[in-house]
């Protein structure tokens, strides 16, 4: 993904000399306190920022070489879930998911896909609900459904459960991990919470823009078999 990348904000290095390689389909948590560079890494990986030095390569695409128009097209291929993701208040839950699909001119039926993905996040009965009638947890599940509706190969989740109560946060995180795992999507997640980070098999810890630890949990045959069994047994289908 990254090779010696650096990004400065003013005269302060947001991230510096970061070198990472992430396997397709891997779930990685970037953990650390506020201001440690987590969100900057995610912005670099989603072509929202450009590195001042080094290179960022995602799915064979060298992001710093993209024009503004190419970067926009690249971002349409990924899913983004954030604690401050916006839903369109004038639209219903299902319309919020359909709208970007219509804009992208996808080959499948946007309405049917939107209904399927809402069902996958447990909101089938709320499809026609207006955004103002949804709870915070329900809104974040709509955000998740919208991000995954086009089945992207890469999902960027910047503090996806921030501001939610424990129950709602657990539901969102469980759905995010389960659904990305089911379809082999690469998940890059940022968090200040060690318990959230521990949900990912790989945890990259940052402090003041520098990687201070990079740990991968057991991924041997027994662990992989257990993961496949859990996914097959419990994952929603969309």
From TrEMBL:
Gene3D superfamilies: P-loop containing nucleotide triphosphate hydrolases. It comes from the Bacteria. GO terms for molecular function: ATP binding; ATP hydrolysis activity; transmembrane transporter activity. Pfam families: ABC_tran. The keyword Transmembrane helix does not apply. InterPro entries: AAA+_ATPase, ABC_transporter-like_ATP-bd, ABC_transpr_LolD-like, P-loop_NTPase. GO terms for cellular component: plasma membrane. Keywords: ATP-binding, Nucleotide-binding. This is ABC transporter ATP-binding protein. It comes from Phytohabitans flavus.
